[in-house]
Amino acid sequence: MAKIMLGVNACFAVGRYPEPEEWLEIVGKKLDLRYCQFFSDLIEPRVEKETKERMCKRTREAARKYNVTMHSVFTGTAPHWCHTLLHPDEGMRKDALAWWESFLEMTPMLGAKAVGSLLGAFSKKDVENPERKKALTDELIANWHYLSRLAKDTDLDYLMFEPMSVRREIPSTIAETEELYERINKGASLPIKLCMDIGHGAARSGKEEDRDPYAWVERFGARAPVLHIQQTDGISSKHWPFTPEYNKRGIIKPEKVLDAISRSGADEILLVLEVFHSLFEPMEDEVIDDLLRSVEYWRKYVSE
Known about the structure:
alpha/beta, TIM Barrel, 8-stranded parallel beta barrel, 12 helices, globular
Protein backbone atom coordinates (compact mmCIF):
# COMPACT_ATOMS: atom_id res chain seq x y z
CA MET A 1 0.00 0.00 0.00
CA ALA A 2 1.57 3.28 -1.10
CA LYS A 3 1.96 6.17 1.28
CA ILE A 4 0.04 9.03 -0.36
CA MET A 5 0.27 12.67 0.72
CA LEU A 6 -1.49 15.82 -0.47
CA GLY A 7 0.24 19.11 -1.23
CA VAL A 8 0.07 22.14 -3.49
CA ASN A 9 2.28 23.76 -6.09
CA ALA A 10 3.04 27.40 -5.27
CA CYS A 11 1.99 28.50 -8.78
CA PHE A 12 -1.17 30.00 -7.24
CA ALA A 13 0.97 32.69 -5.59
CA VAL A 14 2.63 34.03 -8.75
CA GLY A 15 1.52 37.58 -9.52
CA ARG A 16 -0.61 37.72 -6.36
CA TYR A 17 1.36 36.75 -3.26
CA PRO A 18 5.08 37.35 -3.91
CA GLU A 19 6.02 37.46 -0.23
CA PRO A 20 6.73 33.98 1.16
CA GLU A 21 5.18 34.73 4.54
CA GLU A 22 1.86 35.38 2.82
CA TRP A 23 1.65 32.41 0.46
CA LEU A 24 3.03 29.95 3.00
CA GLU A 25 0.43 31.09 5.53
CA ILE A 26 -2.18 30.25 2.89
CA VAL A 27 -0.64 26.80 2.40
CA GLY A 28 -0.12 25.98 6.07
CA LYS A 29 -3.12 27.67 7.73
CA LYS A 30 -5.90 28.29 5.21
CA LEU A 31 -5.39 25.13 3.17
CA ASP A 32 -4.01 23.19 6.16
CA LEU A 33 -1.49 21.38 3.96
CA ARG A 34 1.86 20.08 5.15
CA TYR A 35 3.58 19.78 1.77
CA CYS A 36 4.41 22.29 -0.93
CA GLN A 37 6.30 22.31 -4.22
CA PHE A 38 8.09 25.58 -4.93
CA PHE A 39 7.48 27.34 -8.26
CA SER A 40 10.57 29.04 -9.71
CA ASP A 41 8.68 32.10 -10.98
CA LEU A 42 8.47 33.26 -7.33
CA ILE A 43 12.24 33.77 -7.07
CA GLU A 44 14.19 34.10 -10.30
CA PRO A 45 17.23 31.81 -9.77
CA ARG A 46 19.64 34.33 -11.32
CA VAL A 47 18.58 37.24 -9.17
CA GLU A 48 21.44 39.03 -7.38
CA LYS A 49 23.00 36.66 -4.81
CA GLU A 50 22.25 38.65 -1.64
CA THR A 51 18.61 39.08 -2.65
CA LYS A 52 18.26 35.41 -3.55
CA GLU A 53 19.75 34.30 -0.23
CA ARG A 54 17.48 36.67 1.68
CA MET A 55 14.32 35.56 -0.15
CA CYS A 56 15.20 31.89 0.25
CA LYS A 57 15.83 32.39 3.95
CA ARG A 58 12.46 34.11 4.34
CA THR A 59 10.85 31.20 2.52
CA ARG A 60 12.53 28.59 4.74
CA GLU A 61 11.57 30.45 7.90
CA ALA A 62 7.96 30.92 6.79
CA ALA A 63 7.70 27.23 5.88
CA ARG A 64 8.96 26.34 9.35
CA LYS A 65 6.54 28.77 11.01
CA TYR A 66 3.53 27.31 9.19
CA ASN A 67 4.70 23.70 9.45
CA VAL A 68 5.09 23.20 5.70
CA THR A 69 7.67 20.88 4.16
CA MET A 70 9.23 22.19 0.95
CA HIS A 71 9.10 18.83 -0.76
CA SER A 72 10.74 19.87 -4.04
CA VAL A 73 11.39 22.76 -6.40
CA PHE A 74 10.02 22.93 -9.93
CA THR A 75 10.33 25.29 -12.86
CA GLY A 76 7.61 27.85 -13.36
CA THR A 77 6.00 29.24 -16.49
CA ALA A 78 8.91 31.45 -17.59
CA PRO A 79 11.25 28.60 -18.68
CA HIS A 80 8.29 26.84 -20.30
CA TRP A 81 8.21 29.40 -23.12
CA CYS A 82 11.96 29.68 -23.70
CA HIS A 83 12.85 26.24 -25.21
CA THR A 84 15.73 26.16 -22.66
CA LEU A 85 18.08 23.20 -23.35
CA LEU A 86 16.42 22.48 -26.72
CA HIS A 87 16.56 26.00 -28.14
CA PRO A 88 17.74 25.97 -31.79
CA ASP A 89 20.51 28.49 -31.02
CA GLU A 90 23.64 27.14 -29.31
CA GLY A 91 24.22 30.33 -27.33
CA MET A 92 20.69 30.21 -25.97
CA ARG A 93 21.20 26.59 -24.91
CA LYS A 94 24.40 27.55 -23.10
CA ASP A 95 22.52 30.31 -21.34
CA ALA A 96 19.81 27.82 -20.35
CA LEU A 97 22.47 25.57 -18.84
CA ALA A 98 23.81 28.51 -16.82
CA TRP A 99 20.24 29.21 -15.66
CA TRP A 100 20.00 25.59 -14.53
CA GLU A 101 23.20 25.94 -12.54
CA SER A 102 21.64 28.84 -10.64
CA PHE A 103 18.43 26.85 -10.23
CA LEU A 104 20.31 23.94 -8.66
CA GLU A 105 22.18 26.33 -6.38
CA MET A 106 18.89 27.81 -5.16
CA THR A 107 17.18 24.51 -4.36
CA PRO A 108 18.98 23.70 -1.07
CA MET A 109 18.64 27.37 -0.06
CA LEU A 110 14.88 26.72 -0.03
CA GLY A 111 15.27 23.63 2.13
CA ALA A 112 14.28 21.19 -0.63
CA LYS A 113 16.06 17.96 -1.55
CA ALA A 114 14.83 17.53 -5.14
CA VAL A 115 14.40 19.71 -8.20
CA GLY A 116 12.73 19.25 -11.56
CA SER A 117 11.52 20.69 -14.83
CA LEU A 118 10.25 19.90 -18.27
CA LEU A 119 13.22 18.82 -20.38
CA GLY A 120 12.80 21.61 -22.90
CA ALA A 121 10.94 22.36 -26.11
CA PHE A 122 11.99 21.92 -29.73
CA SER A 123 11.12 24.50 -32.33
CA LYS A 124 8.46 23.38 -34.81
CA LYS A 125 11.16 23.06 -37.46
CA ASP A 126 13.56 21.00 -35.33
CA VAL A 127 10.97 18.50 -34.10
CA GLU A 128 10.16 17.68 -37.73
CA ASN A 129 13.83 17.16 -38.69
CA PRO A 130 14.97 13.69 -37.47
CA GLU A 131 18.71 14.43 -37.64
CA ARG A 132 18.37 17.74 -35.87
CA LYS A 133 16.04 16.26 -33.25
CA LYS A 134 18.49 13.42 -32.52
CA ALA A 135 21.48 15.75 -32.19
CA LEU A 136 19.64 18.08 -29.80
CA THR A 137 18.30 15.16 -27.76
CA ASP A 138 21.79 13.68 -27.40
CA GLU A 139 23.09 17.06 -26.21
CA LEU A 140 20.15 17.39 -23.82
CA ILE A 141 20.93 14.06 -22.17
CA ALA A 142 24.60 14.96 -21.84
CA ASN A 143 23.59 18.24 -20.17
CA TRP A 144 21.28 16.43 -17.74
CA HIS A 145 24.15 14.10 -16.83
CA TYR A 146 26.25 17.20 -16.12
CA LEU A 147 23.42 18.65 -14.01
CA SER A 148 23.14 15.38 -12.10
CA ARG A 149 26.81 15.70 -11.11
CA LEU A 150 26.18 19.23 -9.86
CA ALA A 151 23.06 18.09 -8.00
CA LYS A 152 25.00 15.32 -6.26
CA ASP A 153 27.67 17.82 -5.21
CA THR A 154 24.87 20.06 -3.87
CA ASP A 155 23.66 17.11 -1.75
CA LEU A 156 20.29 16.79 -3.48
CA ASP A 157 18.54 13.42 -3.47
CA TYR A 158 17.29 13.33 -7.06
CA LEU A 159 16.27 15.28 -10.14
CA MET A 160 12.90 15.03 -11.92
CA PHE A 161 11.63 15.62 -15.44
CA GLU A 162 8.01 15.96 -16.49
CA PRO A 163 6.33 14.25 -19.45
CA MET A 164 4.38 16.85 -21.39
CA SER A 165 1.48 17.07 -23.88
CA VAL A 166 2.82 18.01 -27.31
CA ARG A 167 5.50 16.54 -29.61
CA ARG A 168 7.80 19.55 -29.23
CA GLU A 169 7.99 19.09 -25.46
CA ILE A 170 9.53 15.67 -25.03
CA PRO A 171 8.51 13.17 -23.82
CA SER A 172 4.81 13.24 -24.68
CA THR A 173 4.01 9.54 -25.14
CA ILE A 174 4.39 6.54 -22.86
CA ALA A 175 6.89 4.89 -25.21
CA GLU A 176 8.97 8.07 -25.50
CA THR A 177 8.94 8.49 -21.72
CA GLU A 178 10.21 4.92 -21.24
CA GLU A 179 13.03 5.50 -23.72
CA LEU A 180 14.12 8.86 -22.31
CA TYR A 181 13.86 7.66 -18.72
CA GLU A 182 16.26 4.83 -19.48
CA ARG A 183 18.68 6.99 -21.49
CA ILE A 184 18.78 9.88 -19.05
CA ASN A 185 19.38 7.63 -16.03
CA LYS A 186 22.15 5.64 -17.71
CA GLY A 187 25.31 7.49 -16.69
CA ALA A 188 23.57 9.90 -14.28
CA SER A 189 25.30 10.63 -10.97
CA LEU A 190 22.10 10.40 -8.93
CA PRO A 191 18.55 9.18 -9.66
CA ILE A 192 16.56 11.10 -12.25
CA LYS A 193 12.89 10.44 -11.57
CA LEU A 194 9.60 11.56 -13.05
CA CYS A 195 7.19 14.27 -12.03
CA MET A 196 3.92 13.12 -13.59
CA ASP A 197 0.89 15.26 -14.40
CA ILE A 198 -2.54 13.62 -14.49
CA GLY A 199 -3.60 16.02 -17.26
CA HIS A 200 -0.64 15.53 -19.59
CA GLY A 201 -0.15 12.92 -22.30
CA ALA A 202 -0.38 12.98 -26.08
CA ALA A 203 -4.09 13.06 -26.76
CA ARG A 204 -3.34 13.15 -30.50
CA SER A 205 -0.60 10.47 -30.64
CA GLY A 206 -2.95 7.91 -32.16
CA LYS A 207 -2.50 5.46 -29.27
CA GLU A 208 -5.32 5.03 -26.81
CA GLU A 209 -2.98 4.49 -23.83
CA ASP A 210 -1.48 7.93 -24.39
CA ARG A 211 -4.95 9.41 -23.97
CA ASP A 212 -5.57 7.53 -20.71
CA PRO A 213 -4.35 9.41 -17.61
CA TYR A 214 -4.61 6.29 -15.46
CA ALA A 215 -2.45 4.26 -17.87
CA TRP A 216 0.31 6.85 -17.34
CA VAL A 217 0.03 6.64 -13.55
CA GLU A 218 -0.03 2.85 -13.54
CA ARG A 219 3.04 2.66 -15.79
CA PHE A 220 5.18 5.29 -14.08
CA GLY A 221 3.82 5.75 -10.54
CA ALA A 222 6.65 3.75 -8.99
CA ARG A 223 9.17 6.07 -10.69
CA ALA A 224 7.38 9.34 -9.85
CA PRO A 225 7.65 10.80 -6.34
CA VAL A 226 5.29 13.60 -7.44
CA LEU A 227 1.99 13.54 -9.33
CA HIS A 228 0.54 16.91 -10.32
CA ILE A 229 -3.24 16.75 -10.04
CA GLN A 230 -5.64 18.97 -11.95
CA GLN A 231 -9.16 18.63 -13.24
CA THR A 232 -9.21 18.46 -17.02
CA ASP A 233 -11.36 17.42 -19.96
CA GLY A 234 -8.99 14.93 -21.61
CA ILE A 235 -8.60 17.16 -24.67
CA SER A 236 -6.00 19.59 -23.37
CA SER A 237 -4.27 20.27 -20.06
CA LYS A 238 -6.77 22.61 -18.38
CA HIS A 239 -5.40 22.83 -14.80
CA TRP A 240 -8.92 23.39 -13.46
CA PRO A 241 -9.70 23.20 -9.74
CA PHE A 242 -11.64 20.28 -8.28
CA THR A 243 -14.85 22.21 -7.69
CA PRO A 244 -18.40 20.96 -8.40
CA GLU A 245 -18.59 22.99 -11.61
CA TYR A 246 -15.36 21.57 -13.06
CA ASN A 247 -15.82 18.07 -11.65
CA LYS A 248 -18.97 17.79 -13.78
CA ARG A 249 -16.99 18.77 -16.89
CA GLY A 250 -13.75 16.96 -16.05
CA ILE A 251 -12.61 13.35 -16.39
CA ILE A 252 -10.32 12.97 -13.35
CA LYS A 253 -11.75 10.75 -10.60
CA PRO A 254 -9.79 10.39 -7.34
CA GLU A 255 -10.76 6.74 -6.88
CA LYS A 256 -9.27 5.89 -10.27
CA VAL A 257 -6.11 7.89 -9.52
CA LEU A 258 -5.55 6.02 -6.25
CA ASP A 259 -6.29 2.67 -7.89
CA ALA A 260 -3.73 3.39 -10.64
CA ILE A 261 -1.14 4.34 -7.99
CA SER A 262 -1.80 1.06 -6.20
CA ARG A 263 -1.37 -0.94 -9.41
CA SER A 264 1.87 0.93 -10.20
CA GLY A 265 3.70 -0.52 -7.21
CA ALA A 266 4.64 2.92 -5.85
CA ASP A 267 5.85 3.06 -2.25
CA GLU A 268 5.26 6.78 -1.72
CA ILE A 269 3.85 9.61 -3.82
CA LEU A 270 2.92 13.24 -3.23
CA LEU A 271 -0.21 14.47 -4.98
CA VAL A 272 0.39 18.13 -5.77
CA LEU A 273 -2.53 20.37 -6.69
CA GLU A 274 -1.42 22.38 -9.72
CA VAL A 275 -4.27 24.75 -10.43
CA PHE A 276 -3.82 27.74 -12.70
CA HIS A 277 -6.00 30.85 -12.60
CA SER A 278 -6.10 33.78 -14.95
CA LEU A 279 -4.53 36.97 -13.61
CA PHE A 280 -7.65 38.79 -14.72
CA GLU A 281 -10.81 39.39 -12.72
CA PRO A 282 -13.07 37.74 -11.68
CA MET A 283 -10.83 34.64 -11.75
CA GLU A 284 -8.26 36.61 -9.77
CA ASP A 285 -10.59 36.58 -6.75
CA GLU A 286 -11.46 32.87 -6.95
CA VAL A 287 -8.00 31.44 -6.31
CA ILE A 288 -8.13 30.68 -2.59
CA ASP A 289 -11.74 29.51 -2.59
CA ASP A 290 -11.07 27.14 -5.49
CA LEU A 291 -8.02 25.73 -3.71
CA LEU A 292 -9.93 25.31 -0.46
CA ARG A 293 -12.68 23.38 -2.21
CA SER A 294 -10.11 21.30 -4.11
CA VAL A 295 -8.35 20.36 -0.86
CA GLU A 296 -11.69 19.54 0.76
CA TYR A 297 -12.56 17.32 -2.20
CA TRP A 298 -9.27 15.38 -2.09
CA ARG A 299 -9.26 15.08 1.70
CA LYS A 300 -12.05 12.52 1.31
CA TYR A 301 -9.42 10.26 -0.24
CA VAL A 302 -6.02 11.40 1.14
CA SER A 303 -5.63 12.10 4.85
CA GLU A 304 -1.94 13.05 5.12
